[in-house]
Write a structure and sequence with these properties.
By secondary structure, the protein is mainly alpha-helical. The chain has 5 helices and 2 strands.
Length: 144
């Protein structure tokens, strides 16, 4: 099937991007000037009162978003890979790939407007592969 190549590509890019993005969870950026040092200190050490007893720094919030993004990528990649291995019927694959296109298309748009080049490229490649898989998947014959 022609869509399998593109769906495998999307799964590989999803897993690669999850691995690449998880590096940001363990590496602390180093400031290059006093302004960056002050900003990073505030992000790591200043606790915001978020109500109901929750006191977290901006770094805590950014870690939560980063973990959620990594898990989204991991889930998408593993799900696509699993469905390919199980040789799921075309009708189900059409729906799953369509949902992937919507989610990762929105992710790509968000990255385009709010981040920098590596996540834009990675999510763009994921979305492109998913879109190509969706276009290339065989359409069901209508009975009637």
């Amino acid at each position: 099937m022609k869509y399998i190549f593109w769906l495998k590509g999307a799964a590989i890019f999803q897993l690669f991007t999850a691995g690449l993005h998880s590096i940001s969870l363990v590496i602390r950026p180093r400031p290059v000037n006093d302004t960056e040092r002050q900003l990073l200190d505030l992000m790591h050490d200043y606790k915001l009162d978020l109500g109901a007893g929750f006191m977290h720094s901006m770094k805590d919030l950014m870690n939560a978003f980063s973990i959620a993004f990594t898990l989204l990528l991991l889930f998408g990649g593993l799900l696509n890979w699993y469905l390919l291995k199980k040789k799921v019927e075309t009708e189900i694959m059409t729906g799953v790939i369509g949902i992937n296109c919507i989610i990762f298309g929105g992710c790509f748009l968000t990255m385009t407007f709010l981040t920098f080049l590596p996540p834009i490229i990675c999510t763009g490649l994921i979305f492109l592969c998913l879109l190509m898989a969706y276009v290339r998947i065989p359409k069901q014959q209508q009975s009637g």
